[in-house]
């Protein structure tokens, strides 16, 4: 009956079918439709829209909180609006970064930069202190290492092509600053050590200890030439 209706609809009827799983629709249905595949929205677009909506509604917010929501929405404005409603309720009428992190259970992205800054300075004490602060959140250490690798990847892009760095995490300026301060060979070395560390982390007797060992290896075996190279302050 549906096929017949689609083939010969009344002149006053227009069918609009929406789905997130088009592969589950029968081929007989798809063949009778004009298909439009909508792209995911970028975090920048999501944050821009949330800024407008919260401004109109006079809801206080922090920019960092909107970037957290923009990334968590994974390209869906509908999910972004739903998460924002939850954040307003969670924050008792405000959308604050600390509340959104607690609601989503996400890592403070700034702490990833703290770890990388300590590596840049070659200071083992600061590295372990940064790990101690991370441990207070009870993180997934494999996930933390993955976040470090993501930042290093963007730093490498910034060193090769500065204009190629997006602001999808709201941290473009910090990435560019790291790209200026870290020697390129250090970035590549840390990335490789991080990949190996992710592979070996499940074998460590303690996840935090395994994570610390990855960072200490980065310090112990970093390229010798980079130890004496002048470093630009962040």
Automatic annotation (TrEMBL):
The gene is dnaX. This is DNA-directed DNA polymerase. Its EC number is 2.7.7.7. PANTHER family: PROTEIN STICHEL-LIKE 2, REPLICATION FACTOR C / DNA POLYMERASE III GAMMA-TAU SUBUNIT. The keyword Cell membrane does not apply. The keyword Cell membrane does not apply. It comes from the Bacteria. GO terms for molecular function: ATP binding; DNA binding; DNA-directed DNA polymerase activity; metal ion binding. Residues 46-93 form the DNA polymerase III subunit gamma/tau helical lid domain. It comes from Pseudomonas syringae pv. solidagae. GO terms for biological process: DNA-templated DNA replication. Residues 95-220 form the DNA polymerase III gamma subunit domain. Belongs to the DnaX/STICHEL family. Keywords: ATP-binding, DNA-directed DNA polymerase, Metal-binding, Nucleotide-binding, Nucleotidyltransferase, Transferase, Zinc. Gene3D superfamilies: 1.10.8.60, 1.20.272.10, P-loop containing nucleotide triphosphate hydrolases. SUPFAM superfamilies: P-loop containing nucleoside triphosphate hydrolases, post-AAA+ oligomerization domain-like. It catalyses: DNA(n) + a 2'-deoxyribonucleoside 5'-triphosphate = DNA(n+1) + diphosphate.
């Amino acid at each position: 009956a549906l096929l017949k209706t689609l083939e010969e609809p009344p002149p006053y009827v227009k069918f609009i079918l929406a789905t997130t799983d088009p592969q589950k629709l029968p081929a007989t249905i798809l063949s009778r439709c004009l298909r439009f595949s909508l792209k995911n929205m970028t975090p920048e677009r999501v944050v821009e829209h949330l800024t407008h909506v919260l401004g109109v509604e006079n809801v206080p917010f922090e920019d960092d909180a909107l970037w957290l929501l923009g990334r968590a929405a994974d390209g869906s404005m509908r999910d972004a609006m739903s998460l924002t409603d939850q954040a307003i309720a969670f924050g008792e009428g405000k959308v604050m970064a600390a509340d959104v992190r607690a609601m989503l259970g996400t890592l403070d992205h700034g702490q990833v930069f703290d770890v990388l800054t300590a590596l840049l300075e070659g200071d083992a004490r600061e590295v372990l202190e940064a790990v101690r602060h991370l441990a207070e959140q009870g993180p997934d250490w494999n996930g933390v290492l993955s976040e470090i690798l993501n930042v290093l990847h963007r730093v490498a892009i910034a060193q090769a092509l500065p204009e190629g760095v997006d602001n999808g995490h709201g941290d473009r300026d910090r990435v560019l600053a790291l790209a200026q301060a870290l020697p390129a060979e250090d970035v590549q070395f840390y990335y490789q050590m991080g990949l190996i560390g992710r592979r070996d982390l499940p074998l460590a007797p303690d996840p935090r200890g395994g994570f610390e060992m990855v960072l200490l290896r980065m310090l112990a075996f970093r390229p010798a030439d980079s130890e004496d190279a002048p470093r630009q302050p962040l």
